[in-house]
Amino acid sequence: MSSVAVLTQESFAEHRSGLKDTEITGGVPEDEAYIPTYLEAFPPLPDKGAPGERSGEPAGAWSKIRPIKASVITQVFHVPLEERRYKDNSQFGEGEEAKVCLDIMQKTGAHIELSLAKDQGLSIMVTGKLDSVMKARKEIVARLQTQASATVVIPKEHHRFVIGKNGEKLQELELKTATKIAIPRPDDPNTNIRITGTKEGIEKARHEILLISAEQDKRAVERLSLEKAFHPFIAGAYNRLVQELSQETGARISIPPPSLLKEEIVITGEKEAVAMAIARIRAIYEEKAKSVMVVEVTAPAWLHRFIIGKKGQNISRITQQLPKVHIEFTDGEERISLEGPTEEVEQAQAQIQEIIKDLMARMDYTEINIDQRFHRHLIGKNGANINRIKEQYKVSVRIPQDSDRCGLVRIEGDPQGVQLARRELVDMAQRMENERTKDLIIEQKFHRTIIGQKGEKIKEVRDKFPEVIINFPDQSQKSDIVQLRGPKNEVEKCAKFLQKLLVELIESSYSISVPIFKQFHKNIIGKGGANIKKIREETNTKIDLPTENSDSEMIVITGKKSNCEAARDRILAIQRDLANLKETEVTIPAKLHNSLIGSKGCLVRSVMEECGGVHIHFPAEGSGVDKVTIRGPAGEVERARRQLLQLAEEKQVNNFSVELQAKPEYHKFLIGRGGANIRRVRDRTGARIIFPSPDEPEQERITIVGREEAVRLAQKELETLIKNLEDVIEDSMVVDPRHHRHFVCRRGQVLRELAEEYGGVAVSFPRTGTHSDCITLKGARECVDAAKRRIQEIIQDLESQVSVEVVVPQRFHRAVMGPKGCRIQQITREHEVQIKFPEREESDACPVENGSTSPEADSVPRKCDIITVTGRVEKCEQARAALLALVPVTVDVEVPYDLHRYIIGQKGSGIRKMMEDYEVNIWVPQPEQQSDVIKVTGQEASVERARQALLDRVRELQAEQEDRALRSYKVTLSVDPKYHPKIIGRKGAVISQIRKDHDVNVQFPDKGDEQQVCDVIVIWGYERNVEEAKAAIEQMVAALQEMVSEDVRLDHRVHARVIGARGKAIRKLMEEFKVDIRFPQPGSEDPDKVTVTGLPENVDKAIDHLLNLEEEYMLTVTETETLAAYMKPPSRVVGVGGGDEESRGPAKGFVVRDAPWNVSGSKAPDMSSAEDFPTFGSGVAPKQTSAWGPKKF
């Protein structure tokens, strides 16, 4: 068992004071090396005497050291495979065993580690307080180990001593052995005590019970304290030796089991038998003790866990190689104890010392005291801060738990990393001490906008203010408070930034709605969203369009007010360009606006619908503006203007209104086709009739507004119409059966339209196959009559229809249809025709018999190429022209072959963009053809635009080629290589400036290229620029040729002072005298030679100045060296024999006097002996059998 002790400052002071009295002092002169004796250098440990001698005071310096009590202990025990409760090893560490251990750790507070041995047994290490370890051990045994039972017989009168006072002894025994002990009741004559638990626990409990019984026995009891390591030798294999001793002596010998950390062996029996047994046991102990040694290795206490390694890897490797060596660590003490056979202990000691040496070379630690309230901020969210520091500086940081109430943070690892981590942690703590918190009130609706998609925007804010922590409230809290925490100045800056951002958001939340005709929405969006994207980017607004299947025409623009108005103007401009639209303003008093708009806009909406869908825009409520804007086709705008003025006049004169109720299916009939019926009523009466919109809740309510007499008259007419509609009749008419299909096809779409338009009239056609031509109509009389008239009109149209064939090659059909047939659907709607495409054939080529064809066959169109158009003659011709306009054409464009790769672009991006922009297909010939013809296929207008774009691109590329030819003018200049560094300048500064000023490229010869001419400089670019650059370089060379170089000798000891810190002094000197000064490289043959280069007069001045500096600095150097010579101790200057340092002999190392090997009759170990120092991996036959048995290699 390894124990962990707490070493306090007081106990350490006492520990040190115990050794002070025994420190060796003597009268040896200070300048002579003192050689200590062996006993002084290695004071012996106190001898462990017999139990009776313990009360005496041990001799030696170690006697004054007080033992340090352990607060945390570690116990390790083994569960054999056959006793394991859970034997599934497929997922070790993830099954029931791990869950059980986690549960036990939570209950007891102890730390448990599991490991799997080679024999599939389970090794369990429990660490913690003594009480926690005992409880955890009992739980582990009960839940992870199979249970067995055994009985032990002791006299009935001894049972009470096993139970103890109030059962405390029994409870302690059960806890210590992790067993359940059942003792018979006092009135029960049975003497058997039943023990239930693991085999190991049963043995321990049995041993303890027998000890208790023996103590109470009248026979002699002796306790013999021997080291635990010798117990197996006394017990022998399978306890045979101790059984033989018991039989021979008649004494009962009780040896504690290996798992019980007790050293006492109890012998009970007759006095003579006990004495004989003790003598035999002592003889075995003394014989074995000679072959066992105990060694202590010194290592700092903080280094112990690194020596043990992660999950005990390092120590496990040593104990596996040397299983007979026992290694014990004690926290708080700088020592490691090794116990076992001499040879193996020495090997283990060498390995541990090697580990310690390696760790000491690359490890260090420090401790800093940081207020505990800052610990969680040091750790960061999910350990982000502390993990970053650990990874960045390669250190281990140990922060105490909150329950410890300790502020000491320990850092261990690489020395440099430890210091850097310490500095960063201290800085973080200081920043947190200066922290402040500020709350900002920001409406929650803006939170998502400030955070941005996936947190992108708030990440930018946090990057800008990295020291400020920004916390937004949870959405469920519905709070407007945003919390900022960090340094005071940074928090204030961040708060101002967020407030400014909030002001911009409020400004950007302005919204306006723009009514745009539905058919123009796609033009505003543009190809691939190009138009709308451009408007959004240039005006910096958000533009939302209604969905395609929505009836709304409103486009909503959100952003700053000025930007929204600019975007609105651009959208309206697009609409004006696409249609003949007019915009006018009419002045109506603002107080009448609400009455003109009507309830939920019903009145103004009815005006817009009557006038062809014009858009009427009233100013914002409360603005006080009288101008109302009307936009739409010119004629409809004028009608809407007159109606609005008329309504305004009516509102001013009289504003009488009446409401009627009519079924919604009657509304369309009352309105009439194109609003004819309702317009007729309004013209006769002068009243305004308002029908409900589809989204209004009251669908049956009709409102009549105007003068009272006009309203009453209109009400009377509408009531008459409604009464007539409610008069339901049934009528019939004759329709040719060949036209029936037109009415019932497409799921009866024509019949549905008739019912909607004519007050819900029901039209019934005869069943297919009855050959009847009579159809039935049921509904209001006027609705039935109107429906009959409409059916007659449809029949006349059907009888006047014709079919026209349009020949379009089958390979173009897909292009004519367009995506999802959109082009054909548009032609069908615009020209009111039906278009039918032929069945597609497998091959475009018609079969030809005998492999021949005739001109007549070419002139006859194929069935698969004929598209049929059905409708009125004039409509069919228009649709035919529209279809032919959609047939693709192919145009050849001449483009030089060497420009093809530029037109194609990187990975085809250029040609792809052109095809998308112009909606054409562009075919570029294969490189092996080397053809100049590029084919463009598509609609004629698109092909022409694409052809023009190709030609423009060719002209651009040819202009670039001409420019490249002009830039390729090249000139060579021969310059002595010694001037090259000057022309290049420091870090290329001079030559870079020449390249930038003259827009040329200058290339110097490569030093490593032997074939290249070493003095040729190449300049290329535009001819004029090249000549100017050449002249500039020649001018520099001419100036350099006037310079001279002179060598001056300066004592190498003053070079560093002349150069200055980071060359600052020498650079200032060179700038002052306009010269270049070069010092010799380290290790040069002439370390005093300094070269000065420049104009002759400047060189002379610089040399004079350098010599003056040398004279000044040499005085200081001489004084320093003289003083250093006096400060050196004699032992470092003069050797033992009076010579200098070089004449001294090699160091003697560590020497002691009166060592055991210097005693007469003994000798030092033979280092070359394979017996004393065996080599790993090779065996040496021992001279005699070891007490530990044969050696294993």
TrEMBL record:
It comes from the Eukaryota. One of its GO terms (molecular function) is mRNA binding. Keywords: Acetylation, Cholesterol metabolism, Cytoplasm, HDL, Lipid metabolism, Lipid transport, Nucleus, Phosphoprotein, Repeat, RNA-binding, Steroid metabolism, Sterol metabolism, Transport. GO terms for cellular component: cytoplasm; high-density lipoprotein particle; nucleus. Residues 146-214, 218-286, 291-357, 362-430, 434-503, 508-576, 580-649, 654-723, 727-796, 800-888, 889-955, 967-1038, 1042-1111 form the K Homology domain. It is found in: Cytoplasm; Nucleus. Its main location: cytoplasm. Pfam families: KH_1, KH_Vigilin. One of its GO terms (biological process) is lipid transport. The keyword Membrane does not apply. Residues 1136-1193 are annotated as: Disordered. InterPro entries: KH_dom, KH_dom_type_1, KH_dom_type_1_sf, KH_Vigilin_N. Gene3D superfamilies: K Homology domain, type 1. Appears to play a role in cell sterol metabolism. It may function to protect cells from over-accumulation of cholesterol. This is Vigilin.
